[in-house]
Write a structure and sequence with these properties.
The protein is α/β, with parallel strands linked by helices and 183 residues long. The protein is built from three helices and six strands; from the N terminus they run αββααββββ. About 10% of the residues have low confidence.
Length: 183
Amino acid sequence: MRNPSLHSKRALIAVGIALALYFVLASLPPWVLAATASPSNKVQLNVANAQPRQVEDATVQAIQRDYGKAWQTLAQAMSENRADLLNASFTGIARDKLAQAIAEQKQAGLSRKYVDKGHHLEAVFYSVEGSAMEVRDTAQVEIQLLDGDKVVHSEDATMHYVALMTPTENAWKIRVFQAVQGF
């Protein structure tokens, strides 16, 4: 039989984490894409206002693909409480912040599930040499906070992120990932 005191503490921690994660994850994000949809189908990128140079078509496709994959990676890492999975799509401070969020939820005995409903990215900066792109993301997600298999909090949210992406040898990775109030 479960200890009622332990159950109450977990419930309070879950509510506290749900509120904290809403603000933290407004700068982070997480989600699981439908099995029939590819990541780029859920990511639309507008490059009309990118400065100081134009974005090539191949780069648009790569950003859409890799940003979508990053969200899949984030969703899996949050769901399984496995920060090591982040290495595939995140680097630098973005990886560190997300790993910390995973460590905190794992310590509390919780996990998160993200249901990705789509991203509208706008490129605002694309470096002259093509080594960095800053995008603004308006993301539609459902976030579920779980205690074991039990959903203790669920909400649909429109979240806004600023992300700095840099190319690696074979993909673009998210180096900075920050939730913001809106654009």
